[in-house]
Design goal:
5 helices; four-stranded antiparallel sheet; Elongation Factor Tu (Ef-tu), domain 3; conserved putative lor/sdh protein from methanococcus maripaludis s2 fold
């Protein structure tokens, strides 16, 4: 506080000045009262204080902080994207022949097996057609037998010159025509058998069935021959996209040695469900599109995962985690240790004289609750992780505690927009 200068009240040696004229003035001045003396002392002290400056504040002591010593190490990296599941094979169940739908056999929405009967059409017209085809076949076979017998009789007579060569040619042609008629009739029988078999409509794959689009008793023609569809879910596909910026960033990290890819770029894929639980199945990237999507600027990838219990259904939105890459000699610091100013990110380090030093850094991707630091820090640097807000450049520092290196913590995926999560797309681009 600064002293406040006050002006002492004007008093006389005896008592306060009165505006009334005294009747008589005594020759001996009276002694001042105690209250007046105290006021004089206070006034003189305030006047004296106005001439002096405030004393400087005492020097501040070292600030207690918590630090972490930088220790580079190889850190596994997990890329995370938003994906959507897709059936590995969707089959439309279509009626191949026209006729009335007799009965729906399967339960809508259930899991059907390959070869399981799903629909039954009215078979009576097709049974009649089959019997007619078989009768026509028998008739043609009888004609063929007659033509063969005639040919067998003509051959020896022609050899004896009892019949002309033309008679032999006619008999041979009749036998061949009868054989062709038999083949045609036999094909008609097979077609009738196929049509009869088509009245029993079964699923060609094992998968989840949809609802029936045609009800029992309806006539099935060419316009409404789609009965339902079955989606194979084991294995199941998971599609996800990688942006062009992400891909370019990871390519540069790989070229600079900041990112090491697995052998043959064989990445492992896991899926995180909407409730945060981890799907137990593990998959691999099995497809990559040939070019970028010009509208979204992204690159499509597909992973294939086993799904024996049909826990994943087509159309679900999931988070895709792609692991297998490693950051060799990575430097990580806790997120709360990285501050941002007008010139970018910086951290506070403790120098060899135990004083605070502002160090600009270049940060990369997230790593759990830490940042990857690409430039600005080296092994052995001591970074302040708690208490940096009370520090100024050159301030003395007292280390009150130390944390374990951030790289020792388990890895977890950061934002899907981070550039380090795009490398799996590079596999298909080569």
């Amino acid at each position: 506080m600064f002293p406040i200068c006050l002006t002492a009240p004007r008093v006389r040696a005896g008592r306060p000045v009165s505006r009334k004229r005294p009747e008589r003035i005594s020759a001996v001045p009276p002694m001042p009262s105690p209250r007046v003396s105290f006021a004089l002392v206070v006034a003189l002290a305030l006047i004296a204080a106005c001439g002096r400056e405030a004393p400087p504040p005492p020097p501040r002591g070292p600030v207690d902080v918590t630090v972490e010593t930088i220790a580079p190490r190889d850190v596994p990296v997990t890329f995370e994207y938003v994906g959507q599941t897709q059936s590995s094979r969707q089959v439309q169940i279509v009626a191949r022949v026209t006729g009335f739908l007799d009965k729906r056999i399967y339960t809508e929405g259930s899991l059907v097996n390959a070869g399981q009967l799903m629909f039954m059409q009215d078979q009576k017209p097709f049974l009649v057609s089959l019997d007619a085809a078989k009768a026509a076949l028998s008739q043609q076979e009888a004609r063929l037998q007659t033509a063969r017998d005639n040919l067998n009789r003509v051959r020896p007579l022609v050899a004896l010159n009892a019949l002309s060569r033309k008679d032999l040619d006619d008999a041979t042609g009749a036998e061949q025509a009868a054989q062709a008629a038999v083949d045609g009739a036999r094909a008609n029988v097979q077609q009738a058998q196929l049509n009869l078999g088509y009245t029993r409509i079964a699923s060609p794959v094992t998968g989840l069935s949809s609802f029936a689009k045609v009800q029992d008793g309806a006539y099935v023609g060419t316009e409404n021959n789609l009965l339902t569809y079955v989606e194979q879910v084991d294995p199941i596909y998971v599609n996800f996209s990688v942006s062009e910026n992400d891909l370019l960033k990871v390519r540069s990290d790989s070229a600079a040695g900041r990112l090491r890819l697995p052998a043959r770029e064989d990445f492992e894929v896991r899926v995180v469900l909407a409730d945060g639980s981890l799907f137990p199945g593990k998959g691999r990237i099995t497809f990559s599109n040939a070019d970028f999507n010009q509208k979204t600027g992204t690159y499509l990838l597909r992973a294939t995962l086993p799904n024996p219990g049909a826990a994943l259904r087509p159309g679900q939105f999931v988070r895709v985690r792609v692991s297998g890459a490693v950051r060799p000699g990575a430097i990580t610091v806790p997120q709360q240790a990285v501050l941002q100013g007008a010139k970018g990110h910086f951290v506070v380090v403790v120098d060899k004289d135990s004083k605070a030093e502002i160090r600009p850094v270049e940060v990369g991707a997230w790593f759990g609750d830490a940042w990857f630091v690409d430039r600005g820090l080296a092994a052995g640097d001591v970074v302040v992780v708690d208490g940096m807000v009370r520090l100024s450049p050159g301030a003395p520092v007292k280390v009150a505690g130390a944390r374990a290196p951030s790289a020792a913590q388990p890895a977890s995926a950061g934002p899907a927009t981070d550039a380090s999560r795009a490398k799996p797309a590079d596999k298909a681009s080569r």
